[in-house]
Amino acid sequence: MKQIITTTKAPAPIGPYNQAVLSGNTLYTSGQIAFNPDTNELVLDNITDETKQVMENMKAVLAAGGMTFENVVKTSIFISDMNDFGAINEVYGSYFNEATAPARETVQVACLPKNVNVEISMIAIK
Questions:
Q1: Distance CA 89, CA 87 (A)
Q2: Phi/psi of residue 81, each to 5°?
Q3: Which listed site, 37, 92, 95, 99, has its alpha carbon 20 to 30 Å from 74?
Q4: Full-model pTM
Q5: CATH number of the domain that residue 106 is part of
Q6: Got a GO cellular component term for this one (predicted)?
Q7: Contact predicate 31/119, CB 8 Å
Q8: What are phi and psi of 49, to 5 degrees?
Q9: How far apart are the first and last CA of the chain?
Q10: CA dihedral in degrees (66, 69, 73, 74; nearest 10)?
Q11: Helix (H, G, I), strand (E, B), or coil: what is residue 70?
């Protein structure tokens, strides 16, 4: 059985999907972009601020599912420019304990929703 997870502390879906789905002890999140749910604006000033907003959105979705970054076992990072990898990785890494960090892939893509520069999704287990 699946449970739909939602929170107003992260952006509402812009299509036929949910912020996250909890199935048993596993939480599957949709990708998050740098949409600030408080201002209804995208945070695109620079890649550091953009990535921080993405991670804060993910933090809110994880919390709504009763989890934290410590529960994350897998992440997927999609970026529009591999030259931003270092800055994205620095912000992303600040949310995890390096010794227990999740598995991950980072992929450069041609285009992301709303023409953002980074999108991140996660899988977490209680």
A1: 5
A2: -145, 115
A3: 37
A4: 0.96
A5: 3.30.1330.40
A6: cytosol
A7: yes
A8: -65, -40
A9: 16
A10: 110
A11: helix
Identify whether the C-beta of residue 65 lies closer than 8 Å to the C-beta of residue 22.
Answer: yes
Burial class (CB in 10 A: 0-12, 13-18, 19+), 59: middle
| CA–CA dist 121, 25 (Å, integer) | 17
Number of domains in the chain: 1
Average pLDDT score over the chain: 97
* 3 state DSSP class of 69: helix
Under 8 Å between Cβ of 10 and 61: yes
Domain that includes residue 37, residue range: 2-125
Q: How far is CA 55 from CA 20, 23, 118, 119, in A?
A: 15, 22, 10, 9
Q: Which residues contact 83 (CB under 8 A, 6 or more apart)?
A: none
* pLDDT tens digits for range 8-22: 999 999 899 999 999
3-state secondary structure of 112: coil
Instruction: Give pLDDT tens digits for 45-60.
Output: 999 999 999 999 999 9
